[in-house]
Write a structure and sequence with these properties.
Homoserine dehydrogenase; eleven-stranded mixed β-sheet; NAD(P)-bd_dom_sf; binds sodium ion; Dihydrodipicolinate Reductase, domain 2; Rossmann fold; alpha/beta; binds the ligand N[C@@H](CC=O)C(=O)O; sodium; Alpha-Beta Plaits; 14 helices; single chain; binds 1,4-dihydronicotinamide adenine dinucleotide; NADP binding
Length: 430
Amino acid sequence: MNSYRSLRIALLGAGSVGSQVARLLLEHADELAARVGAPLELVGIGVRDVDAQRDVDLPRELMTSDLGTLVASADIVVELLGGIEPARTLLLDALASGADVVTANKALVAAHGPELFDAAEILGAQVAYEAAVGGAIPIIRPLEQSLAGDRVTRVMGIVNGTTNFILDRMHTEGSSLADALRVATELGYAEADPTADIEGFDAASKATILASLAFHTSVPGALVHREGITGITDAMVAQAERTGRVLKLVAICERLPGEGGDRVSARVHPVSLPATHPLAAVREAKNAIFVTAEAAGDLMFYGAGAGGPETASAVLGDLVSIARRHVLGGPGAASSTHADLPIAPFGDVLARHELALTVADRPGVLAAVAGLFAEHGVSVESVRQDAREAHASLVLGTHTASEARIASVLDALEAHTDVERIDSVIRLID
Ligand SMILES: NC(=O)C1=CN([C@@H]2O[C@H](COP(=O)(O)OP(=O)(O)OC[C@H]3O[C@@H](n4cnc5c(N)ncnc54)[C@H](O)[C@@H]3O)[C@@H](O)[C@H]2O)C=CC1
Ligand SMILES: N[C@@H](CC=O)C(=O)O
Ligand code: NA
């Protein structure tokens, strides 16, 4: 090994991921030093309460609640606090002092990535965030580096482990959303506020990051269409199963070609897909991301999307890579937004939908409902009918139509006197 001085690592946060990063840094110190060419010295762990009980036994003398002073003393700051503040300010301070930064904080990168990347570029520092999307799965580096010479057209997949775990348990064990969420939280998959998971905010942050990287365009989080899983009922799960399908929460980032040039769309919503679809086999808290690029064709990335040790693996990968740059020198890889493509409104996105309706059970209702679809330019592919007392249940599958047309059909159905209820609306993937 050469005689490069120790690199001073400040770790912020000792929760599910932070405690595992600390454990691995301490347990594998010799091996990591050999890989980097210099010892990685964990100089402190920033926590709220130095005496708090933790899953992992960590040296008390490393704990500090003075995160600002800890950051000022480091070569590399690893941020595993979550949330926007104080993480954002601490990382900007770290970059300003010349330190490099590793973070797993997708909410922060999605909302303030450009600010952090600009601060890093001015100072020749690096911001690495492999753990922010797909947990342990390498996906940031492939998009940022391995595919840098190709033209990515689509990134699609399951990017939130907690909601995948919940939907999986709803399908396989008939669990309620609340019960499955409790287990996912115990297993360290959920965000500190799990609303971020179940309402799709976490997946939307990841879609923002993936779309920005894939299309070299700064995609603002506010323009990412977001729907979570709280509207998914037992009846929808049963309905999907009756037709050999599975419900999943997916993120879809696409380059949409058009006469005026390419536009970009990023969205997160539940879909119903055939049980034979590769994404249907993604169980528990696993993630899977498909990337399509013009020259490379279709690529699939699969693995643990959440969990303390799994995510710590990605954090340590970033840490080793940044630390080697300290030792060997040279510029780091940087994200680029040179393409600056416009973002397509969600209404322009095309999808197939399945709608379940409760309607009055009288002659002519089916024709009236079908007429509404035709009026709004949506073509119906399939209809199933099931009569119950004075009501009838209709399940209609559409051909591909724009989200704007579907939204106007839904408005018209809601206003129609024969439609008692729209029971569910789900997008279909083949
Ligand atoms: N848990 C997982 O599977 C994954 C988590 N992430 C991300 O990693 C980061 C950490 O996640 P977890 O470890 O799961 O969260 P966690 O909630 O288990 O840990 C965060 C820790 O930071 C501490 N903390 C928060 N604000 C603080 C402050 N101002 N001062 C001192 N301590 C503070 C909390 O007390 C807690 O112990 C988040 O950004 C999360 O989104 C990313 C991928 C997977
Ligand atoms: N809460 C997140 C953690 C990883 O990013 C998830 O469930 O995917
Ligand atoms: Na990752």
